[in-house]
Write a structure and sequence with these properties.
Order of helices and strands: HHHHEHHEHHEHEHEHEEEHHEEHHEEHH
Distance between the termini: 38 Å
Radius of gyration: 26 Å
Shape: globular
Strand content: 5-15%
Helix content: 40-55%
Number of helices: 17
């Protein structure tokens, strides 16, 4: 079937190539002044946009073709100096439309095909075509989602989508907004927690209020949680890391000890971030137990479900976020496991009105109260931004296409593939798991080439093992056929992190990953590694 599809796609691509040649010849020598609105003649505009559209269609077929590379990697120096008549340098000179089309083609050619079935490099993977259509239409509308009059359809869509997401959490009311990524969503959570903890902090600031706040998160939490403590004046020293257990979940006993210690130091513990799906391990913190401590000590509980939020869509895996309805706020990134195109992050809170009290500035040139509609729909004054990109439509459109069941099926398929890969690793000689059975779709493991396995000196063996994953990854990138990530964590030397979130992935791709790691690992030269001569 795949071979038939490839033949059909090639035929389509061949037809498109013929049409593209004609279009390109027609517009090659034209300039931007031959396009709307600078020219009243529509033909050049139509030809230019058709050529760009055909280029994107051809690229989409390549993304799903396993014979194509995941990446045709070029070092930064090559892209700056130029390759195939393309350079990323900007010299200020205007070029012809034909040159622009060439640049578009090469930009796609030398980028990472994140929708490729063999892309396992990041938490955001895949190419949902309905979401893509939504992004195209969003860009065409070019709306600023600040006031109802600027973006009436998109503003009401945000409202309905967030209502649906809050219902999945278990809230009957609340507030929220779409933000530029999970880091900023986590920023909003800390802003709201700070607003509740310190009277008049919005006007006087922490210094004038004389309060030393401290927050808590597991040491495996996303780095943005501590970064936002720096941004908001809490300080990195007061964003306290909590130990994790053997599964990578927050240790509640250690957290209570650190809360009590902070109180002895006359600090005010004001917030805990529980992670639902850590970036590396995929661990889910015990939300109910964390909430009990938050209630005991009067702290805000935020759940960073950027990665794990999609489990709320599946009755089979809903238990992973047991107790999430108790949270004061939640970060949820549909651009991860739900497969929506980047970026698509949502901050949600059960506390109505608090986003406004934190951020409202009532700029009179934007937020007039005497408009001809209900100005409660002017959502811009509850954000830290003025201009805000429309991220809702691609989510709304994809959700309409798939429904709750379709989203759940995609997530459950990824979970099933994870179990297959996990069991395959256990059965294959040379692979060792870093953690116990995966909680989500993250699988962390080492590969020990045969020339490492019998080394008795533990220190030397560890030193060599730390070089294996980076060296194999470097060779993978050079070949470009399949991609995985690696990292160290705690006292663990570099290991592979396999993340299955791509809806195009199948068992054959997972099998190829294992075979590729074995092949590249066995091809490594022990002597060059021990001398530190490998390149990455």
């Amino acid at each position: 079937m795949e071979q038939e599809n490839n033949v059909h796609n090639n035929e389509l691509a061949h037809d498109d190539d013929d049409d593209a040649d004609e279009e390109e010849e027609e517009i090659a020598g034209k300039t931007f002044k031959d396009l709307l609105p600078f020219s009243s003649e529509n033909r050049t505009t139509e030809s230019f946009l058709k050529e760009i559209f055909n280029l994107m269609i051809r690229y989409i077929f390549k993304v799903y073709d396993r014979r194509e590379k995941v990446i045709d990697f070029q070092p930064p120096s090559v892209l700056l100096e130029g390759i195939d008549g393309f350079s990323v340098k900007l010299d200020g000179k205007a070029v012809k439309l034909g040159d622009l089309i060439h640049s578009c083609e090469k930009t796609l050619k030398y980028g990472m095909k994140t929708g490729h079935p063999r892309h396992f490099n990041t938490l955001s993977s895949g190419l949902d075509l309905v979401s893509l259509a939504g992004e195209w239409l969003t860009a065409t509308a070019n709306a600023n989602i600040i006031n109802y009059e600027y973006a009436p359809v998109f503003v009401t869509m945000e409202k309905t989508v967030m209502e649906r997401m809050r219902s999945k959490i278990g809230w009957s009311s609340g507030d929220g907004l779409f933000s530029p990524g999970g880091s900023i969503s986590n920023l909003y959570a800390m802003m709201l927690a700070r607003q509740c903890a310190v009277e008049n902090v919005k006007n006087k600031g922490l210094v004038q209020c004389g309060q030393v706040l401290c927050s808590f998160q597991s040491r495996h939490a996303h780095y943005s949680v501590r970064k936002m403590a720096s941004v908001l004046g809490v300080g990195l020293d007061n964003a306290i890391n909590v130990d994790v257990d053997e599964s990578g979940c927050l240790d509640v006993e250690d957290m209570e000890k650190k809360i009590l210690l902070s109180k002895e130091e006359n600090k005010i513990p004001f917030m805990v971030t529980a992670t639902a799906g850590t970036s590396v391990v995929g661990a889910f913190d015990p939300i109910r137990k964390i909430h009990a401590l938050c209630r005991k000590y009067g702290m805000w509980m935020h759940v960073d479900a950027s990665w794990g939020g999609a489990a709320l869509m599946s009755a089979k895996h809903l238990h992973l976020l047991d107790g999430v309805e108790l949270a004061d706020s939640v970060t949820w990134n549909p651009h991860k496991m739900m497969g929506i195109l980047l970026q698509c992050s949502v901050f949600l809170t059960k506390r109505e009105g608090l986003l406004y009290s934190c951020n409202q500035m009532s700029a009179p040139y934007l937020f007039q109260t005497d408009k001809n509609y209900d100005t409660a729909h002017d959502v811009g004054d509850k954000t830290i931004q003025c201009g805000r990109h429309v991220d809702v439509f691609k989510l709304w459109l994809s959700w309409k296409a798939r429904g709750d069941c379709g989203i759940a099926e995609q997530m459950e398929k990824c979970m099933d593939l994870t179990q297959y890969f996990y069991k395959k690793l256990q059965e294959t000689e040379g692979f060792e798991l870093v953690y116990l059975e995966p909680q989500y779709t993250n699988i962390c493991f080492w590969y020990l080439p045969t020339w490492i396995r019998n080394i008795k000196d533990a220190k030397h063996r560890r030193e060599l093992l730390s070089t294996v994953a980076p060296s194999i990854k470097a060779e993978m990138v050079r070949e470009g056929n399949i991609i995985i990530s690696y990292n160290p964590l705690d006292n663990h030397v570099n290991f592979f992190r396999m993340v299955i979130t791509n809806p195009a992935a199948e068992i054959e791709d997972l099998d190829l990953m294992i075979k590729t790691i074995e092949r590249l690992g066995e091809n490594m030269q022990q002597t060059s590694l021990s001398n530190g001569k490998h390149q990455h």
